[in-house]
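Hi F.,

I've been meaning to write this up properly since the lab meeting, where we talked about keeping a consistent format for the predictions we share between groups. The idea is simple: the sequence comes first, exactly as it goes in, then the structure tokens exactly as they come out, then a line or two of notes. No screenshots and no reformatting. I'm using this chain as the first example so we have something concrete to point to.
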Amino acid sequence: MDYFRNIVMLAAIAGAIAGLGMTVAQSFTTVPLILKAETFEGQGEAEAPAAAHEHATEIPAHSHGDEEGWAPEDGFERTAFTAAANIVTGIGFALLLIAVSELFGGIRDWRQGVYWGLAAFAVFTLAPGLGLPPELPAMPVADLGARQVWWIGTVVAAGVALWLLFYQRSLLGLLAAFALLVVPHIIGAPQPDSHESPIPESLHHSFVVAVVLTTLVYFALLGGLAGYFRDRFIRAS
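Output, unedited:
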């Protein structure tokens, strides 16, 4: 029971700190780009012809109109909800990261934790992001269910591929890992019927770079914190 409680406490501490750090980083990187994209979103809706609006009802896409209902106000409220979401997400990722690492002997220190965090970044961000890059408001997207299925399949394939690369170390394992990394992208991520968007390409490129870099730091921090606090929990127990 103490072992399970320590894991939950460890995940809560590491996830909360990493989530708050992510919120601070986003306030300087991704949030300004999202706010800028929202201005193009309104412009695109005003200039779109009626036929395009009729067709858009058949394609799930980002929409920030009245149909979405309540949304947090810009400023403190929006930041608070973002922080809460990042903390909850961080705790979830920390639980998953710690649980998997415990199956392989646990994270010994913060340095090894950083490596585990980088592995998580490759699995959860890099691999699926090659087919489904981060999107800004007003950008067309494919069906949500299809994207979720492809994303989960790609994440699982990438996770198994890393396990084969680091723990099997054989020619057969290397070939299987390569296949698992490539097959989801050969199948291809679901794509919208049209890629037309009022969002400038340079803005989207900047957003993708910002998301990737902040997520890289986030997972490295999450893993490092997990290793740092696990080492101290073990000494105390």
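Notes:
The chain has one domain: 2-141+192-236.
Residues 2-141+192-236 form one domain.

If this format works for you, I'll send the rest the same way.

G.
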